[in-house]
Write a structure and sequence with these properties.
504 residues; Trp Operon Repressor, Chain A; 4 domains; globular
């Protein structure tokens, strides 16, 4: 199996790293080929015959300092393997000198992302773990002694990261913490596809208390609500417990949570129109960019898409100013008067108008005769199951809105795309988009007119309800067939449209 993500740890103690990283869940992922982890011994790259890599710091001071040359040569050897020789000496145009490939303004693109673990770095967070998990290759540099010569850090490091306000004897333990946290975000590492998305710190709330057997231990009983089987009451109890725990233990996080709940209340006054924004908040994926009364801008922590709603164009422009324009920026606007100023601000003419449709009931739709989830059937009823990576090209070829095969590949890898199979052949597919909507609904031409689309849409609605989500989707203006299907299944359309502007 092709590796999904590779970690390259530059260290003076490779055995320590490899022993710690080849056990339990991470070790299993390495064995399956989902992860690749290597520890590169910096001592192998020193020119000193005694394998010395440290020396006294200029200006005096306690302790020894790791020298620039062996660190740089170790990093360069790894970079050349990853980039296929792109890290060779090529000082001049397009480089920073000393052979380091050109870097864009954000300091990362154009060379391998390299993390230096140091108490002086930016605090490591769950959001950062998700960001690093999007990389195919990640280099982590471990310091030792009193640190590393500043000159090599300036040449190779893209991210300075701290796991806490304390000092360790070396960066190896910190590197292993980062690898563990990032690996959990890589598709396929965790057996439960949703367990990596419902952890502490998601949505600014700490995780609720958990209980297992026996029901009574040392006189302490499992809360009755968890034994009730009532999913609604269990969700409410867990939310209340998470709120209480966060309020008591992390008031800083709770303050952010409260702000988002205030936004959710305001957005709920137009429930159908703002369902995409309120669901972002409900699922713990919303990051508050700006809020002033009914003028609100949220960003999806996973996709990076911005969602804006405003009372007028002037207030909307204030929200745009909180967003740095760029070629990859994508906005979802909830008023048409925001479109022209948004396109002017981003310097784009790309725009897509959509109807927002919501399934407002809580009961699941009937499935008799529509589909089954068994592996085989003998009565022509389609079987619906998760698609596997070998279907990526087929989905990309038939999905009308597909723009990037990498996006399709990522959604399939995360178990978010489902196929309807008739006599073992793929007849259609549907899935959930990164920002949380039902979409990608496509029926292959030879299977149209056989209720495959209805089966897939019903399956997705029921799946969302099982997960405690409100099912919703967006239909591009002019797609009458899809609109009729949504309405026949009981979805309601918002009176106003939503508008996608930017890198569609």
């Amino acid at each position: 199996m092709e590796e999904n993500m590779n970690f390259h740890i530059l260290t003076l103690f490779p055995d320590m790293v490899m022993r710690g990283m080849h056990t339990s869940i991470i070790g299993n992922a390495v064995e399956k080929g989902i992860l690749g982890i290597e520890a590169v011994d910096i001592r192998d790259y020193t020119k000193d015959r005694h394998r010395k890599v440290d020396d006294y710091p200029y200006g005096g001071g306690a302790g020894m300092l790791m020298q620039a040359q062996p660190v740089y040569d170790a990093w360069r050897a790894v970079s050349e393997r990853i980039l296929g020789g792109a890290a060779e000496d090529c000082a001049g145009e397009g480089t920073r000198g000393n052979g380091v490939p050109a870097v864009s303004d954000d300091g990362r693109k154009g060379r391998v992302r390299t993390v230096y673990v140091t108490p002086q770095g930016v605090p490591f967070t769950q959001a950062m773990a998700k960001e690093f998990a999007a990389e195919e290759e990640l280099v982590i540099l471990c310091g030792h002694y009193e640190g590393i010569d500043e000159r090599v850090l300036a040449e190779i490091v893209t991210d300075y990261v701290s796991i806490g306000d304390y000092v360790l004897t070396g960066g190896e333990l910190a590197a292993m913490v980062i690898v563990d946290a990032v690996s959990r975000m890589v598709p396929g590492v965790l057996s439960n596809e949703s367990s990596g998305e419902t952890e502490s710190f998601e949505g600014h709330l700490l995780e609720y208390p958990q209980y297992s057997r026996p029901e009574c231990w040392m006189g302490k009983r499992v809360p009755d609500v968890l034994l009730s089987g009532n999913r609604k009451k269990i969700r409410e109890w867990r939310t209340a417990q998470a709120e209480q725990r966060t309020r008591e233990r992390r008031p800083d996080l709770y303050q952010q949570y409260e702000k988002l709940q205030q936004c959710r209340e305001i957005l709920g006054r137009k429930k159908l129109l703002h369902i995409d924004m309120t669901e972002l908040i409900a699922r713990g994926k919303a990051r508050l960019v700006a809020a002033d009364g009914a003028n609100i801008c949220l960003r999806d922590a996973e996709s990076g898409i911005y969602f804006l709603t405003a009372e007028n164009a002037a207030e909307g422009h204030k929200l745009f100013e909180k967003i740095a324009p760029g070629p990859d920026v994508l906005l979802v606007l909830h008023q048409e008067f925001l479109c022209e100023p948004a396109m002017e601000y981003l310097g784009t003419r790309e725009r897509m108008d959509c109807y927002q449709l919501v399934y407002t009931r809580r009961e699941k739709l009937p499935v008799a005769g529509l589909y089954r989830e068994e592996q085989t059937t003998e009565d022509g009823v389609p079987v619906i199951r998760k698609l596997t990576p070998e279907y990526t090209d087929t989905v990309f070829a038939h999905y009308e809105m597909a723009g990037d095969p990498a996006y399709i590949r990522e959604r399939i890898a995360k178990g978010c795309v489902f196929g309807a199979f008739v006599d073992g052949e793929l007849a259609g597919f549907a899935g959930s988009h990164t920002e949380g909507s039902i979409g990608m609904l496509t029926v292959l031409p030879e299977y149209r007119g056989r209720k495959i689309g209805k089966a897939l849409e019903t399956y997705m609605i029921n799946r969302f309800l099982e997960q405690g989500y409100t099912p919703y989707g967006q239909v591009k203006a002019g797609n009458g067939i899809s609109m009729r299907l949504q309405e026949s299944l009981g979805l309601y359309a918002a009176k106003e449209m939503v508008y996608w502007v930017g890198a569609i």
